[in-house]
Amino acid sequence: MSLIVTIVPCLGRPFQLGMLYDMRRDCLIPGLSLWDNNKLQKHKNVIPKHFTQMEVSTSDSLEDKAASMNISGSLKLSVLSGKVNVAGSAKYFNDNKKSTKQSRITLKYHVSTHFEHLTMDHLEHKSFQYTEVFDSDLGTHVVTAGLYSADAFLVFNRDLDSNEEKTEVEGTFKAALSNLGKLGNLEGQASVKLNESEKAVTDKFSCTFYTDFRLPANPFSFKGAMDIYKQLPNMLGEKGENTVPLKAWLYPLAKLDSKAAKCVRDISNSLITAVSDVIESLNNAEIRCNDLAVDTAAQAFPAFHQKIQELKKKCNDYKLDLLKKVGSLLPLIRGGQEEECDLVDLLKHHEESPFSSTELDQWIKIKQDEADVLKAFLEKLECPVRDVYKSIGKVFAHTEDVVCFTFTSLDESDPFLDYLTNYIDEKSEKRHKGKREKPESWLTQDVGQRMRKTLKLFNGLKSSSKSNNTKFIVVSDYNEENPGACIMLYGHECDDTVCFIPPSKPICSTTDACDLTLDPNTAHTCLSLSEGNRKVTGVEEHQPYPDHPERFDYYEQVVCRESLTGRCYWEAEWSGEAVISVTYKGISRKRHIGGCVFGCNIKSWSLECSRNSYYISHNNNYTNIYAPSSSKRVGVYLDWTAGTLSFYRVSSHTHTLTHLHTFHSTFTEPLYAGFGVWYSDCSVCVCELE
């Protein structure tokens, strides 16, 4: 690196004439100088440098902010990595937009007052009082001149409404700023005059000041900012004593003594740009996460919101770690201890990492697509979104049954996020081992099609419901067996849920409904028949039925008169505990043997109904169905030819069917409906279908 005088921005750092500066680390060396303070003051020249400037910018890029603050070269990397702690107006560099939907306009006010420098004879070797500085290896340069000024960055922000154009809003705001007139005439200027459209726009902007001035107050509104802005010239002091160093001229110590430490090389511009682009990309990923976090989907579903926040945090953690590594390399490369290739390798590893812009953009794009789909579904559902674990109890306080459109994949774990976590936590030598996860969405084409069908079914149930005792809501609850969405039903008497599945065959009560009556000749004597032989009730006292070969003499069962073939549908309402069955006529009727019990032989198929669950059985094989039985009505659909027998829970209010089970068999003879009532006061009644 050539031994030339370098000009650096002070960025709020306390530069003074004669101070040492280490350009390898971009830091001042306090307490060391070539001269004592009295000698410095005697050989200091002060030249007036009055200059005032106003700039308006709508850009928030690192490149443009660095340019507005005269931050160039690898100093930008020192600021980004935190090696340089900025202060005053320079804090503006670290203020980034929070949203792509945010309009930001920055007004910069700059005024310089004077220039201070040491006389040339002061740099002669004989004038040095503390020559040990050259042997210390602490500093590479000495401050020989400084430009004093005061800057102010007024950052105006506002969130745009969905119907607003960013360019139009910013154009109106910039027109309002043009009313400020010439900066030199600010003192005593009247209030800024705005037309109605300008006032409507500026009133929605908030203001943040980053300044070297000592403000009497921190304004937040446009009007308050303008009132302070007009007072800025008065805050400089009569002789500019309230200004701060803006730029410093650094003289190489090696030019004064060859033994002094040197800054061997600077970072190449291409590498500086590459690092800046990486940081800009990570910043943009965080900004896009902020937008997604306030989207309808994220606000409605905590699991979706949590994943967005998780990625944002991981991006920030990774960025800080990357900048820490950059910051540690800078002084080593500048001092000649390391080569630029180390920084090149660091960037290469970044591009190969899951935090590359390609993979982050892909993940965020996937989440944006998912959010758009969720938002579209919520608009079509027109139902309140509830927390499935916290709100169901409150809903039941005002209703008996709850029908939930359930998004089933939002709580699913995200392998890519897990991979990011492992990548950050693992040591660098382990990062390339193991499976590399790529961003993927649960919202495949098949899942999307399934969700649309579920939406149509749910809205159909909602529109057909005529009961005030049924509530329709939207929830999110992970269900691996039903990816995308399903309909879950909750009964007020049970905490368990059942997934609603539409009938596999269309049920039409007008064509397939059958009228059933109980056969008194088959009824056990502890069963009482009523309502025209449509209802059976368990009783303790034996009924005076005559002997009959078809009567059940041990188990409290009864079958119907009508034989069933073809397609048949009927419904039965039960209380207490009951068995609803279909059987061949040849089922055993006598004695205490298992062959007589519905579901315990090859001749019958049954559904046992109890308060909290159902059991299905055939040939003595039982299966428990964990489903709330708050509805006491069961639908039975027989397709004799197709060999299917289906049982459904029938909602007592909406008359919607929830599939419980389907038997598949080859029926060889006519079937008969049968019922079992084991206890007194339990009953089953054949329902009349409209």
Q: Structural class given helices, strands, pairing?
A: alpha+beta
In this structure, how is the largest beta sheet organized? 8 strands, antiparallel
Helix percent band: 25-40%
Output mean pLDDT: 88
Number of helices: 15
By DSSP, the count of extended strands is: 25
How many structural domains in the coordinates?
A: 3
Q: Can you summarize this structure?
A:
This protein has 690 residues and is α+β, with helices and mostly antiparallel strands. The chain has 3 domains: 6-263, no CATH class; 275-492, no CATH class; 509-686, Jelly Rolls, CATH 2.60.120.
Structure description:
By secondary structure, the protein is an alpha+beta fold. The protein folds into 3 domains: 6-263, no CATH class; 275-492, no CATH class; 509-686, SPRY domain (Jelly Rolls, Sandwich). It contains 15 helices and 25 strands. It has helices at 37-42, 62-68, 75-80, 166-177, 196-202, 222-229, 269-293, 296-300, 302-334, 340-351, 357-381, 392-396, 415-425, 445-464, 509-512, and strands spanning 6-9, 19-22, 27-33, 44-57, 102-118, 141-159, 206-211, 244-252, 401-407, 470-476, 485-491, 497-500, 527-530, 535-538, 557-559, 567-575, 578-584, 604-609, 614-618, 621-625, 633-639, 644-650, 657-664, 671-676, 683-686. Strands 1, 2, 3, 4, 5, 6, 7 and 8 form an 8-stranded antiparallel beta sheet that branches. The chain has a 7-stranded antiparallel beta sheet with strand order 13-14-25-16-21-22-23, with no helix packed on it. Helix 4 (166-177) crosses helix 5 and helix 7 (269-293) runs antiparallel to helix 9. The longest helix has 33 residues, at 302-334. It is elongated, with a radius of gyration of 41 Å. One of its GO terms (cellular component) is extracellular region. Keywords: Cytolysis, Hemolysis, Secreted, Toxin. It comes from Electrophorus electricus. Residues 496-690 form the B30.2/SPRY domain. It is found in: Secreted.
